[in-house]
Design a protein that fits this description.
Elements (H helix, E strand, L loop, with lengths): L1 E5 L4 E8 L3 H15 L4 E3 L4 E5 L1 H8 L18 H15 E4 L8 E6 L2 H15 L4 E4 L12 E6 L1 H10 L5 H16 L3
Antiparallel strand pairs: 1-2, 2-4, 3-4, 5-6, 6-8, 7-8
Helix pairs in contact: 3-4, 5-6
Length: 190
Amino acid sequence: MFYMNKGKRHASYRIVLAEPNAEIRRLFKRLVWRVYHVRARDKPGRGVILAFGVNMMRDLSQYGPFGKMNWVAPLVYMDRRAARAWARSYFDGDGDVRLTSIISKCKVRAKSVNLLGLESVKRLLWSYFGIQCKIYRREKPAHDNWSQAFELQIFNKENLLKYARLVGFNHPAKRRKLRRIVELAKQSRK
């Protein structure tokens, strides 16, 4: 998540990654240093890592809006390699893997209150990788002031195998589950 706080003396620009997995936080820390020469601060007790830097924020903000309700995949800036990295990163953060013993019930999913954002992810997956997916409206919010949530689902053996081969995960637990889905797919005859 991107933040810009305007204080009395100066503005503070920061990126916050909320991620309980220490390996992913370390990866983020290395990437921020390699690309922007900014030292990220890990807060393991809170499950977040923070990076502060005006140049980093200026660079990243040119690729589109970054709010909970208005982010989109920056398709106009992508080639296939960038699309793979972006999709992998997105699903590492906002995705999950539904693993069952029946291949037809396994899914890679991502939830969001931003329907437009999920539609751009769907376009990215189809345009660059030929992966079909569907977007479903989640149950009605429990409170009137909560936003409607949506879920993008990648399912069926063919699409899950394409996702595993062409996109995949950096996140260790999600990568293990996806590997198990690939094994199930190889065992199934359908």
